[in-house]
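**Reference record**
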Amino acid sequence: MLGTLTRYLRFLGYDCESADSLPPGNRGEDTLLLAWAEKENRILLTRDRELAERAHDRGICIRELDVMDQIRSLQERGLIDLNVRLIRCSVCNMLLRNATDEEIGKTRYAPSDTTGFSFFWCERCRRLYWDGSHTENITSRIRSLNQRSE
């Protein structure tokens, strides 16, 4: 599975789904993934070489083990831009919207001093996001990829 890559792609603003969304133990999972990619006009990222071949031009076999190497590979293929954009929930892929003061206030993990932060809300997961240290760490990791590719 490429769950970590999926989360990073969502941090980069990409609409991406994960095989984790499928029911576990389904013997026809590959067929479902191929149909899903075709129906929704998606690129299928997989570590399974045979599945990538079955997907033809919709499939990409991810050979790299490290998520930063995976991201660099996709960027070098011209498939993604390396700009962090907090527009999607990293857990469920839902588009985020600006959080209300009430949503910020009732979230226990929100920073006590909200000055200077932009807050975003996932209506499906009911999660709060903001441009704090976690976002800065991800941005820093992505920026290091940008510097290596220049």
